[in-house]
Amino acid sequence: MRIDTTTSAPKITAANSADDAGVSSNVRLLIFLRDRGIIVLWIVLVIFFAFWASPYFFTLANAGLIANAAALAAIFGAAVGIGILSGALDLSIPGSATIAAVVGAISIKAGAPAWLCIVIALLVGASVGIVNGLLVQRGLNPLVVTIAMLTTLGGLAQVISGGVPVTGITQLKWMGSTSYLGIPAPVFVVAIVFIAGWLFLTQTRAGARVLGVGGNIEAVRRAGVNADRYRILGFVLSGIFAAVGGLLVMATTTQASPNPSVDLLFSALTAVALSGMPLTGGRGSLPRVLVGALIIVSISSALIIRGIPPYWATIVTGVLLVLALAFEKLMSSAVAKRLAPAPTATLDTGAPPTASFTVPRTSKTKEA
């Protein structure tokens, strides 16, 4: 039984409302910086480079080169990002891209049409995702599983190709080295993939469940949803995106190399980190991954125009990766702190403080 001696209802003053409004405004600003700050950063960098690397950076020709290079970084960033959104960091992306490209190239060499080569490559990427998902579902560590898969796929690609690149693949030039209206073909391919991925995550029930599994898999299970199925789906989508990336590389270079490129994985991880996507999953945006890729390529382009050695671009990219992770952690902590309820609240009651106490209920205590 609780006995409360309060004699009048408390009155919330106008100052409290003003404070609440101020806190809400601060939270909105922090959320904007966390989720949209990358766009502001890219615009600032473009304006800076337009003057610093003038007159060659801010030209249509250089914009086409940046868009083409960013397309490859973005598609692999999407492959990593979709895995993170589902709650698993897939490090086998370069291996999936390599094995898909090699198998597709050999299919073309065997006389298969270009469309069938694409289908086969996508199926290979999806199969790798299924295997990764099933192994992780058995309780194995995702990082260990995907690193082992990366190594295995690289070896398989060497075996299938005989240890040498599969050359002379010109049937896919329409999606690689060709330009349409002055825009490189890979830009159109990446635009289609990103739009499809964005619509899937934001407009479908399956996409919402993939995000839910990445955010809190136990809550999804308690809701009666087969969480393991959607975790596997995340790996499958990651493998398909990686296969698209492998096809783009093959279409651009007209050959399929059996050696996985770890540099692509590093660029993809950096683009994802710059987008503000937490590595714990559940929150993020594929369009912001695209902006992250544009930032990486823009920095590299500006340094090359200024005659600065390429290895400085690698150093800057590594520093950006660390800063992006630190910034995301700082903003997330600040938002959580602002949204956390205060332990105590002070109200203007217009009367002296009152007292209340609780009488423990026992077998002899009677309700009033």
UniProtKB/TrEMBL annotation:
It is a multi-pass membrane protein. Keywords: Cell membrane, Membrane, Transmembrane, Transmembrane helix. This is Ribose/xylose/arabinose/galactoside ABC-type transport system permease subunit. Its main location: membrane. The chain crosses the membrane at residues 38-58, 64-84, 114-136, 143-160, 180-201, 232-252, 264-282, 289-305, 311-328. InterPro entries: ABC_transp_permease. It comes from Subtercola frigoramans. It is found in: Cell membrane. The keyword Membrane applies. Pfam families: BPD_transp_2.
